[in-house]
Amino acid sequence: MNERRRSGNRNENRQMGSRANRGEGERRGNRGDTRRRSPEGGAGAPRRADAWRRGEAPRPSARRDGETRRKPRQIDARDASCEEPIVALDEQVQTQLIKGRHPVATALAEGRPINKVVIAEGAVEGGYEHIVARAKEQGIVVQFVPRSRLDAIAGQAHQGVVAYVAPYEYAELEDIIARDTGVTGLVVVLDGVTDPHNLGAIIRTAEAAGAQGVVIGKHRAAPLTETVAKAAAGALEYLPVARVANIVQALEKLKDAGYWVVGTTVDADHRMVDVDYRHKTVVVIGSEGAGLHRLVSDRCDFLVNIPILGRVQSLNASVAAGVMLYEVVRQRT
């Protein structure tokens, strides 16, 4: 009798626990379904354009074009915490390397602070005289080492010359917005691009297209490193890069400054050529795997696709950026 009573109590407890779990699950489900949704056209809704054709594309309103820009903040500190330092074999300090003839020559020409230039022995006869001469004019130490030692310091993709430099300084977003390039405003925003070669190639293309700057995230994104600098082929000496904690907030600031935001995604219903880029424009490029994050795509005024005729349904991020940027250039020239 007592054993049956205990068994019955256990069964009753299990049933009560099951009902409690179901109730908890229902409550959780209800909470998940009560997300606030912005009404159509409300303040929280993303801006969308009804007219997509270039001839009918909306223009920024006078209110947005007349917005007072924030005063640019002076850069007073380096954010070197996410750099990729390289420790030379004969130095005890952490620094970065610029590798290759053109990147080193560009850094010298632009007056970037350089601690030392290291050249492989015998390379002077190979067209490096101008690098040596420019470095000595600026009082920069030039050191000649065996090529095997340079390989050990910098790997093999150095073309016989490297320069030790201070880490790159990031610009402020306000600096990029205020930057006058002589052409209509153009900013490139990268959402989750983690490959440094892609980042460098995009910076190079953005500079060639007359962009004011590039904006990257602090999290889940490639920082500025020597690999990026080499892929950028000297463009980092001319084009500012801002590093922000929140891409969505950066897009809002750009929109407040009168920019129209165009994001690329493979499943967009409209082609990239259907949008008018002759006004201040932000081009947003996502990662090759995940594409644009939902909150980022929600902040875009336009979502467009790049037409693809083959079976591969996506492009390399740097290629997609190049295609988009030169559609902007084509319409403006």
UniProtKB/TrEMBL annotation:
<dbReference type="Pfam" id="PF00588">
    <property type="entry name" value="SpoU_methylase"/>
</dbReference>
<dbReference type="InterPro" id="IPR013123">
    <property type="entry name" value="SpoU_subst-bd"/>
</dbReference>
<feature type="compositionally biased region" description="Basic and acidic residues">
    <location>
        <begin position="1"/>
        <end position="13"/>
    </location>
</feature>
<dbReference type="GO" id="GO:0005829">
    <property type="term" value="C:cytosol"/>
</dbReference>
<comment type="similarity">
    <text>Belongs to the class IV-like SAM-binding methyltransferase superfamily. RNA methyltransferase TrmH family.</text>
</comment>
<dbReference type="InterPro" id="IPR029028">
    <property type="entry name" value="Alpha/beta_knot_MTases"/>
</dbReference>
<dbReference type="GO" id="GO:0008173">
    <property type="term" value="F:RNA methyltransferase activity"/>
</dbReference>
<dbReference type="InterPro" id="IPR029064">
    <property type="entry name" value="Ribosomal_eL30-like_sf"/>
</dbReference>
<dbReference type="GO" id="GO:0032259">
    <property type="term" value="P:methylation"/>
</dbReference>
<keyword id="KW-0489">Methyltransferase</keyword>
<feature type="region of interest" description="Disordered">
    <location>
        <begin position="1"/>
        <end position="83"/>
    </location>
</feature>
<dbReference type="InterPro" id="IPR004441">
    <property type="entry name" value="rRNA_MeTrfase_TrmH"/>
</dbReference>
<feature type="compositionally biased region" description="Basic and acidic residues">
    <location>
        <begin position="21"/>
        <end position="39"/>
    </location>
</feature>
<protein>
    <submittedName>
        <fullName>23S rRNA (Guanosine(2251)-2'-O)-methyltransferase RlmB</fullName>
    </submittedName>
</protein>
<dbReference type="InterPro" id="IPR029026">
    <property type="entry name" value="tRNA_m1G_MTases_N"/>
</dbReference>
<dbReference type="GO" id="GO:0006396">
    <property type="term" value="P:RNA processing"/>
</dbReference>
<keyword id="KW-0808">Transferase</keyword>
<dbReference type="GO" id="GO:0003723">
    <property type="term" value="F:RNA binding"/>
</dbReference>
<dbReference type="InterPro" id="IPR001537">
    <property type="entry name" value="SpoU_MeTrfase"/>
</dbReference>
<feature type="compositionally biased region" description="Basic and acidic residues">
    <location>
        <begin position="47"/>
        <end position="81"/>
    </location>
</feature>
<dbReference type="Pfam" id="PF08032">
    <property type="entry name" value="SpoU_sub_bind"/>
</dbReference>
